[in-house]
Amino acid sequence: MNKVTDISSLRDPAFTAAVQADSGQDVTTCYQCGNCTAGCPASFAYDRQVSQIMRGVQLGLKDEVLNTRSIWMCLSCSTCSLRCPNNIDVAAVMETLRHMARKEGRVTVPKVEKFWFSFLDTVRVFGRTYEIGTMALYMLRSLRIFTDLDLAPEALKKRKLGLIPHAIPRQDVPDDGARAVGRIMQRYRQRALREGVRP
Hints:
By secondary structure, this protein is an all-alpha fold. 54% of the residues lie in helices and 0% in strands. It folds into two domains: 96 residues, Fumarate Reductase Iron-sulfur Protein, Chain B, domain 2; 85 residues, no CATH class. The longest helix is centred in the last third of the chain and has 19 residues. The model has no long low-confidence stretch (mean pLDDT 85).
């Protein structure tokens, strides 16, 4: 029988169960009303709409879901979660799917992952994001050296980009806050390496 009409061979019930366990959401209560898709500000960039991804999770279509670009283009704005009539945290499901895809080496939009690494590297060092540092690291990692450089003067003029990293205010030791964040991220890194995931 044609797999277009018979998806039983493609279904993986364990995938559905894993998504529900990791996200803490009961995806079976989604009845495809489409509110998540209708309100998604990033839907124009998706290859599968949010409601289609939710249906894929319900059906256990692991490859179909984890190989989409959509889970990487999600803005994590939680508009979908706010609009869901069944109170499903759809954004949490999308986040869970990103982590699952990454663990399996299915990063379909590598530039998004490069941006994440750049952002997290500045947080690891300074305790919070450092915009110019994030931009510089991302440009190096993605080889987009001259991308958006024309925006920098205007952003600097409006004080949207700080030349100096923001310090975490602490009364006792000035840089202790940054070190504490660094220690947290180091523990995550060690755990990820133990689990065989590239941190």
